[in-house]
Amino acid sequence: MSSVNPFSRPKQRPQEIIWEEQTPASGIYFRVKKWLHREKSAFQKIEVVENESYGRVLLLDGLVQTTEADEFFYHEMLVHPALHAHPAPEQVLIIGGGDGGALREVLKHQIKKAIMVEIDERVVEVAKKFFPWLEPALRDSRAELLIADGKDFVGSTKQKFDVILVDSSDPVGPSAVLHQQGFFSSLRKILRPRGIIAAQSGSAIFHHETVRLKRRFLEPMFRYVNFYVAPVPTYPGGLWCYVFLSERVNPLRGPAKPVISGLKYYSRAIHRASFSLPPFLNP
Q1: Which domains does the chain have, with CATH numbers?
Q2: Beta 143-147 vs 161-167: how paired, if at all?
Q3: What's the rounded Cα separation, in Å, for the pair 74 and 99?
Q4: Which of 9, 155, 237, 245 lies at a CB distance of 3.0 to 4.6 Å from 197, suitable for a disulfide?
Q5: What is the pTM of this model?
Q6: Packed helices 181-189 and 208-218: angle between N→C axes, nearest 10 degrees
Q7: Is the dihedral of CA 149, 73, 56, 19 positive or negative?
Q8: In a 10 Å sphere around its CB, with 0-12 CB exposed, 13-18 middle and 19+ buried, how is residue 161 labelled?
Q9: Tens digit of pLDDT for each residue in 173-230?
Q10: Distance CA 68, CA 152 (A)
């Protein structure tokens, strides 16, 4: 009688492997089934590979931005807690988000306008080619793409927004300023009275001190400063942190309207649970 080891892997022919070093002592690797794209833009290195487990993977400066298999965790949880908590969002601003996942989720709501401000046009062009959700999102009459520095746009625009989503990369390179106190002060000035800001805030495991520092400067600025968490398997630590900011909307009350259908992760129950933080993340 023979037994089969369920964890055994069939032998594979040697393939190129790319690594993202997530800490000085650990990281994640992807076996490259096929290289789809490699270039150096004016701002960063842009790469797209095909992987058997995650499908197409977008990396910027060697850091995973999105994968076909798990992108819905991140994009749904950046967008839907804020869009569902606001009773009637009309004007939405996305800072960053060149892969288009956040824009796609925003357009599932009955909004009037969604402006996406991305600094690197090449990221948008590469995503349009390799990730099928971006092209139709940009064709939506409610969507507007601006190739500009998010900080400059926020500092100069006269428009006001119901929801602002900060879909930034890690606080290095061109995205570093999007994590600083001055930037959030500028965001506050273009927020409507019932407005909401939702921003990605890094790894709940490995960026714990960064989250703590961000909480420290945000709490004097907004009445409601609520961090929340959700899984993103390919991001450092697998548990990702976001922050919800508002003067009038308390996210702990849950969605203000019915949850839209067809989502893969976000739900009314997930909304409530995600704001219930483990003790190590509490002040």
Answers
A1: 17-66 (2.30.140.10), 71-281 (3.40.50.150)
A2: unpaired
A3: 12
A4: 245
A5: 0.92
A6: 40
A7: positive
A8: buried
A9: 556 677 788 899 999 999 999 999 999 999 999 988 888 889 999 999 999 999 999 9
A10: 31
